[in-house]
Amino acid sequence: MNLSPGQLDLLFQALGDPTRRAILERLARGPATVTELAAPFDMALPSFLGHVRKLETSGLVETAKHGRSRTVTLVPGAFTPVRSWLDEQRALWEGRLDRFDAYVQTLMQEKRDEP
Amino acid sequence: MNLSPGQLDLLFQALGDPTRRAILERLARGPATVTELAAPFDMALPSFLGHVRKLETSGLVETAKHGRSRTVTLVPGAFTPVRSWLDEQRALWEGRLDRFDAYVQTLMQEKRDEP
Questions:
Q1: Using CB atoms, which residue from B10, B11, B17 is nearest to A9?
Q2: Which domain of life is it from (chains A, B) (predicted)?
Q3: Residues B56-108 pLDDT 10s
Q4: For residue A97, what pLDDT band results from cuts at 50, 70 and 90?
């Protein structure tokens, strides 16, 4: 994974907004035009386009112009850096619990070995 | 999971910063005082405390005062809402691929059945 510095920042920041997450949830079902995507939202088009642009900058979606409409598509594997970071945190955390467990086992063994 | 509205926003926003992610990576190895946490960062203490406060507001960490120092602890399971949302996206995406696969199978079957 060739992750540019700040890419993880952009990804998490893009996900920190309910409109942008709703757009991604819709796109997980398949590509859509900007007009289709905007329909459920009571929002001025420029604001809505700002959200789409933020998703595009983060690398989560791609857009392409077809005639007079613009189609938005989810980028396959775009969530991978986010998942990888979370998996690393879990591994660190579980490693810590394993070490704690081993420590408790050692204490208990010492207790049993006491005369 | 009792998730208040906006909680997912706060979580993703908290994760969208390299200093805050570094703090979480450190805390995955065990609790630390604010002084210990701040040591690796070339940052004024008020700015650093702002990051700790943002992590606390999002529910990712807890802080407790012990004498003159403040200990910061990772909250177990705090990443769960983030993971759940990502898992939902993956399920939607895979459901879509399965449906596409079934559609292609149907097309191929129809092709074979042609006289």
A1: B17
A2: Bacteria
A3: 999 999 999 989 899 999 998 999 999 999 999 989 888 777 777 777 788 88
A4: confident
Chain B residues lying within 8 Å of A13, measured CB to CB: 12-13, 16
Whether the full predicted model's pTM is greater than 0.90, yes or no, is: no
In a mutational test of the B interface, the residue from A4, A11, A12 whose CB has the highest number of chain B CBs within 10 Å is: A12
pLDDT of residue A5: 60
Domain boundaries, chain A: 7-74, 79-115
Please tell me the predicted confidence (pLDDT) of residue B93. 82
Is the complex ipTM more than 0.95?
A: no
Answer whether B41 touches A (CB < 8 Å).
Answer: no
A75: DSSP letter:
P
Which residue in this structure is represented by tokens 């991604």? Answer: A24
DSSP symbols for A33-51: EHHHHHTT--S-HHHHHHH
- In order of A32, B16, B49, the CA distances from A53 in angstroms are 15, 17, 32
Distance, in Å, from the CA atom of A79 to the CA atom of B46, rounded to the nearest integer, reads 33
Q: Do B9 and A17 touch (CB under 8 A)?
A: yes
CATH class given for the domain over A7-74: mainly alpha
Nearest to A96 among B17, B30, B88 (CB): B30
